[in-house]
Description:
Layout: E1 5-8, E2 11-15, E3 32-35, H1 37-45, H2 48-51, E4 52-54, E5 62-65, E6 74-81, E7 87-92, E8 100-103, E9 120-124, E10 139-143, E11 149-154, E12 159-164
Antiparallel strand pairs: 1-2, 2-3, 4-6, 5-6, 6-7, 7-8, 9-10, 10-11, 11-12
Amino acid sequence: xxxxxxxxxxxxxxxxxxxxxxxxxxxxxxxxxxxxxxxxxxxxxxxxxxxxxxxxxxxxxxxxxxxxxxxxxxxxxxxxxxxxxxxxxxxxxxxxxxxxxxxxxxxxxxxxxxxxxxxxxxxxxxxxxxxxxxxxxxxxxxxxxxxxxxxxxxxxxxxxxxxxxx
Length: 166
């Protein structure tokens, strides 16, 4: 098991020190946040723990949402690439398949390859994505406080960036 993960019942727990980060779909936990077991398995199956560590500077540390619109809950996790220290998001679809890496050493939209600027993020309903581009699927709003950011949404084949603000 990855050193940053602990098993408790049916959940994998991500140790977060004293930061008090919490999953967006659960009440704040004082020292840990539980990621879905399936997400922990996918993270390990794709050897993402070799390349990334969980990013603990922004709360919550991850979100659950139906990002691809298949009716199953997916998972978006904040990560830092070990080799470069660059921050980003890994999205794991519940149905499996290749993980999507946004930032964290890979350029994505106007967010670039390092999302260290990220100060806030949240799920927004796909219906609120301008131009109907969200297609009713959950989307992520990623922002630098008091500045700009983007809306990350699934277009049916991959993730897209829509500039938000500035």
